[in-house]
Write a structure and sequence with these properties.
The chain has 4 helices and 3 strands, in the order H-H-E-E-E-H-H. The chain is of the alpha+beta class and about 120 residues long. It has one domain. The two termini are about 20 Å apart.
Length: about 120
């Protein structure tokens, strides 16, 4: 996720190279078709970026929060944790947020550290 939210469509490779806040899987084609996002150029993926192998998601049953699932994104194996360590707190959300939720996260400066 890009750090700044910009009013213009101008962006540089230096901005692309900034450390991301979190990573999400996002259906770009649908958002582009609805004109929520627009193509602004082609950039290189930063050399030090690695696609996360683990993510987390809330585990709720009948509206009651029971803990966190740490999900291996390759095998989809889940491990339930009641309390997260600092490394787990910084895991990105598992799943594919819709465009409305992603816009909300960006507009409210949503951070992993404040996610419950």
């Amino acid at each position: 996720m890009l750090k700044p939210i910009k009013q213009t469509a101008q962006i540089s490779q230096d901005e692309i190279n900034l450390k991301e806040r979190y990573s999400v899987h996002f259906v770009v084609k649908a958002a582009h078709r609805k004109k929520i996002i627009e193509r602004v150029g082609k950039f290189k993926i930063p050399i030090d970026y690695k696609v996360p192998t683990k993510a987390r998601t809330e585990h709720n049953v009948r509206g009651e929060f029971l803990g966190w699932h740490i999900v291996d994104q390759k095998t989809l194996k889940r491990e339930l944790k009641q309390k997260l360590n600092m490394e787990e707190i910084l895991l990105s959300p598992h799943g594919n947020p819709n465009d409305s939720l992603l816009i909300e996260w960006l507009e409210t400066d949503w951070k992993l550290e404040s996610w419950k």
